[in-house]
Structure prediction request, 756 residues.
Amino acid sequence: MVDELAVLRDQIDDVDQQLVELFARRLKLVAAVGEVKNRQGVSIYAPEREAAMLVKRRAEAEALGVPADLIEDVLRRVMRESYASEKDVGFKCMNPTLGKVVVVGGAGKLGGLFVHLLKLSGYHVSVLEKNQWAEAEPILSEAGLVIVAVPIEQTVAVIQQLPELPANCLLVDLTSIKEEPLQAMLAAHKGPVLGLHPMFGPDVSSLAKQVIIYSEGRDKDAFDWLLAQMHIWGARLQAVSAEEHDQAMSLVQALRHFTSFAYGAHLCAEQADLTQLLNLSSPIYRLELAMVGRLFAQDPNLYADIILSAPTNLHMIRRYHSRFGELLTQLEQGNRDAFVQQFSAVSEFFGDYADIFLKESRNLLAQANDSRHLPNSP
Amino acid sequence: MVDELAVLRDQIDDVDQQLVELFARRLKLVAAVGEVKNRQGVSIYAPEREAAMLVKRRAEAEALGVPADLIEDVLRRVMRESYASEKDVGFKCMNPTLGKVVVVGGAGKLGGLFVHLLKLSGYHVSVLEKNQWAEAEPILSEAGLVIVAVPIEQTVAVIQQLPELPANCLLVDLTSIKEEPLQAMLAAHKGPVLGLHPMFGPDVSSLAKQVIIYSEGRDKDAFDWLLAQMHIWGARLQAVSAEEHDQAMSLVQALRHFTSFAYGAHLCAEQADLTQLLNLSSPIYRLELAMVGRLFAQDPNLYADIILSAPTNLHMIRRYHSRFGELLTQLEQGNRDAFVQQFSAVSEFFGDYADIFLKESRNLLAQANDSRHLPNSP
Prediction:
């Protein structure tokens, strides 16, 4: 009987080997697509082409009795690799007469990513680091674009220290707050100004589908080419005022980071047994624990900077803490009905998003479960 | 130039069609494997076979210039489908002389999943619902296994109402707390007793890799067959005492659920613009928002039950709230150094897990980004 299984498994191995060969062929074709896109100046991320292709493949799959979600998930995963390899081919340069680009803090991770992408797009890029500040003037002279990519705390000071830039030079920052740096840039430079906030870590394999928020500073005509360039890199550009940006970020960043920090500190104070918690956990709790734990593999100063970047952040966190306390007191007083009522009110607030999130997270939790390794391994 | 792109895309479409055909062939082979496993009584989840196969495929992929992670991710996704289809073939029955199985609350979702799996394994399964309580005695007479699958709040009462069961009948519950139901079962029945807590929702496509926690009540020899049966279904069985289970669950369930509830209530009170938050969000925040939002597509009573299932849960949540407040006060007083110090202490507490979680979540966040749809769609 074991032999019967072995014969079938050999056949499955054959199929899987053909799968590997198909992927190799597909990646070669995609590299060729990348070269054409590079010449044409087309974005590596083509959402309409992607959506149309998936509709066709889903239908073909169903006709052959293959679950449509399986083929969609696989193709989405393959496309991630395609974007990454298209990226390496290089990108069309949207502003060939720009002149020099200088990335202040370009040796850092995020600055380095922009240096890399700008070079792949044919620009001449220089890096200016702290220890080169004496040479700042010659390095910055004749710059067509200056990007400030230093830690939040230092951003305003670095902007204020900049020597006078050429009048038509575009000044840009990458900080995760927008009001203060934008004000500082507008005060320090009379030419075009743009605030950017890339919503991803420097370790992404490509910019396909990644969000870059931008807040206009001055002279949109003079920075449209940079938006077009980032669009070619695959990014989704979202315009928002600096004020709205900072308000949203006190929820999206400050509150979430602080909450994760407090949850980690709580687990530590409770002397929780992490190995046992993982052994006993559902995919959803494992995921939540991972989202908290990942914080502590990173630099505390980055999180301190983000949380302390605006006093309104601490006010937001304090309001959350108060509400949390009130809701808890209710339950401690045995008022279960109030809990159920408030829960329903929040459900109404989430509206269609609650179901969308349930569906989306179900798929992600299934993917998290796919990756579970041997029993009892961490 | 556009034609050049069209030619390449046609070739990619050809490759993708072959991909669909390969998947169709693989699923047929897997169905045949399922039949053999069914006859042999082998678990649908074979971690060693899976690990060995992935090592081989990764090496073959690299030899052809295909990223090893790509083939591993794709095969893991394909295997999920395989488990689901192996499941439908049925399972070997590990206790053919058991006699009747009765699932109290078997019309509910989780109870229904066990009814389905037990039937697929060749057992005779009856369901006992509230409205049939008058016939409880005849339905339960001659039962070899009784599973109580009713909401937490009702579990103890239902157990106490059970008529006398046959002496050698195995009594089991599926509740997400273990101390109280186990005590109630031991008091109500003199035969073998087992507490189970399945750590997954009723909508999983198969039990492969899913965790089922068990707490021994009485007479391990008389329930070993059920553990073996669930192992065949693909589950990972974790033994833990009822007391340790309930302690862990106040962290894994009560605190996390309450925190998500409070965060949802906070977003609602702040009148947050969800569409804008999603447009401006990183994959990580979108994921966190989804994990919170999914709660509100579900039944408030389920969450009230879990949180209120033990007074120690509320004590745990209160301790978290106090610590959160202390950590926040520190920051409000401008004590950044204390934040950085405590952060580092928690990093040490997480140890190797911090890096493991960072790596694991990076992969999941990339998968979350793969699934992003057209710009501005929810």
Notes: The first helix of chain A runs from residue 2 to 40. Chain A touches chain B through 166 residues (CB under 8 Å). The radius of gyration of chain A is 25 Å.
